Amino acid sequence: MSLAALQADFRHWLEQSDEAAAARLGSDRSAGLAVYQNNYRAQLMACLVDAFPQTLAWLGEAAFESAAAHHIDAVPPSSWSLDHYPGGFPATLAALYPRDPEIAELAQLEWLLSEIFVATDAWPLTLDMLSEVDWERATLRLVPGALTIALSTNAAAIWTALNAGEEPPAAALLPEEEALLLWRQGFTSCFRRLDADEATLLSSLADGRAFADLCAALAADRGEEAGLQRAGELLARWAGEECLASSV
Amino acid sequence: MIDPRFSGFGLGLRKPHYAAFLDGSADVDFVEVISENFMVPGGRPRDILRRVLANYPVALHGVSLSIGSAEGLDRGYLARLRALADEVDPLFVSDHLCWTRTGGFNAHDLLPLPLTEEALAVVCANIDQAQDALGRTMLFENPSSYLSFVGSEMSEWAFLAEMTRRTGCDLLLDINNIHVSGHNHGFDPRAYLAGLPLDRVRQIHLAGHSQGAHLLIDTHDQPVPDPVWRLYGEAMARLGPVAVMIERDDNIPPLEELIAELDIARAHGRQVVAA
Fold it and tell me: What InterPro entries does this protein map onto (chain B) (predicted)?
């Protein structure tokens, strides 16, 4: 058997408990093959448990492990980094629990926070830097890794309660989607809810829009004075929260 | 530039012990980190690494190179490892004699290779590629294994010896892995040591294991047991300058317990020098 064929058979044994593949690897190898398969599955299970503590708390241990086992069967790892493996789990949860959308949204929130945790470092724009910026030309951008998402359920409130060790609220669909900003402040991943106009403005930052354009959009929506006042409020808040990169 | 004949006693960087490595109070000569844990764009892991580097020399120990993959190496992975190594200027860059990846699948476990001429040729070609990409000599660790393949054509020590001869790579000798594999496959650990080019051993791992139903399992969750200490003593009597460390990955005790275990390793080293 060639090395490539041996490695393909070993893969099929690990992924699918393929007995024919195991037999080709050696009929008297069952004890050793069992060790490797146990290691493979145990490592992926531990990875998912570590990555989704609040989703586990919400689902309960038995349901979480059942879903994780399903995911391990359905989605074999492909990346060089085990840290990338949990990224597909929210989609598996969405498929397993179509009537409980808060579960997948909770898992997605946990996954995105963990991705932001290791995003590229950047100096944030801070309040004391605002006076030095040429606002006629400035283009705002979020710190690396920061993003906005929209949730249809109260998953964010569930995460917050569970993370604080408090009793979570009952799952609920929201009357309208809730926009969240996720970013890293210092070395801590965080998120907060966004007002509707703020969500629209922040999502447009990804397009590299000038601050002057944002002011104009707010002025058109609220009138000149109120629009500029709102722009100032938002800018001060974003700078205070260190969610904007400093090179504006 | 780091002394190519570094000798000293170290520990793996594990989260429960971060504080002592960050303030420099841990009594070790070097620290080994898992490369992949720090092959990330930024955030706290990179900050931790920078601060540990301010206090200790660091060795990079990888688990995902997959040097035995028949399909070759992942160039993206190599580029990331190169970037990390350039930033860290590590004592060593090491990985394992194993494979983890085939056909877009990554097992995240150190899977065994058949000890064949074909596998040797694959491993050596991959090592040449990795060392060229990194611009460094790498160390490869002897694995623990739980099965051997029909058709193997040589002993593991003969495989390792020929691998170092062909590629110029060095060895990370895991004493516990020799003991575990010796038990599982029925070879004499002393014959293993005798068959290795010990002048190529730059680093030693010491660890504990667990007894499975039929096999010893390399769990790294126990203190170093007596048979491993004895084999370590025999190895140290024949080695030149070498970096020695305790590798504990699970059931991690307080740092003081690992330092006490490291003191046993230091004492063995002194006994060997005295002899």
Answer: MbnB/TglH/ChrH (IPR007801), Xyl_isomerase-like_sf (IPR036237)
The confidence score (pLDDT) of residue A219 equals: 92
CA dist B123 and B163 (Å) reads: 8
Q: How many CB atoms lie within 10 A of CB A237?
A: 13
Contacts with A118 from chain B: Cβ below 8 Å: 40-46
The interface predicted TM-score of the complex, written ipTM, equals 0.94
Residue B44's contacts (CB-CB under 8 Å, 6 or more residues apart) are: A117, A118, A187
Based on the fold, state whether residues A244 and A124 are members of the same structural domain. yes
* Cβ(A201)–Cβ(A214) below 8 Å: yes
How many domains does chain B fold into?
A: 1
Residues ≥6 apart with Cβ < 8 Å to A180 = A109, A148, A149, A150, A151, A156, A191, A192, A193, A194
Q: Which residue has the tokens 């690990």?
A: A14
Nearest to A187 among B44, B109, B214 (CB): B44
Smallest Cβ distance to A40: which of B107, B119, B212? B107
- Alpha carbon of B213: minimum distance to chain A alpha carbons (Å): 9
Close Cβ partners of B261 (under 8 Å, ≥ 6 residues apart): B206, B223, B224, B246
Q: Tell me how crowded residue B166 is: count the other CB atoms within 10 A of its CB.
A: 15
Residue A226: give its domain's CATH number. 3.90.930.50
Long-range pairs for A236-242: beta carbons < 8 A, 24 or more residues apart:
A236/A127, A236/A130, A238/A125, A238/A140, A239/A124, A239/A125, A239/A126, A239/A127, A239/A129, A239/A130, A240/A127, A241/A183, A241/A185, A241/A192, A242/A124, A242/A125, A242/A126, A242/A143, A242/A183, A242/A185, A242/A186
User: Is there a single domain that holds both residue A217 and residue A235?
Assistant: yes
Residue B162 corresponds to which tokens in the numbers above?
């020929």
Task: Name the pLDDT band for B268 (thresholds 50, 70, 90).
Answer: confident
Q: Which of A41, A71, A99 is the last residue of a domain?
A: A99
b/e sequence B216-237, b meaning 16+ C-beta within 10 Å? bbbbbbebbeeebbebbbbbbe
Distance from CA of A1 to the nearest CA of B (A): 9
Q: Do A184 and B101 touch (CB under 8 A)?
A: no
Are B17 and B255 in contact by the 8 Å Cβ rule? The answer is yes
* Contact between A31 and B213 using a beta-carbon 8 Å cutoff: yes
What are the tens digits of pLDDT across the range B97-153? 999 999 999 999 999 999 999 999 999 999 999 999 999 999 999 999 999 998 899
Is B119 inside a domain boundary? yes
pLDDT band at B241 (very low <50, low <70, confident <90, very high): confident
Q: Distance between CA atoms of B100 and B68, rounded to whole angstroms?
A: 8
Up-side HSE of residue A76: CA atoms within 13 Å toward CB? 20
Q: Determine contact: A73 vs chain B, CB below 8 A.
A: no
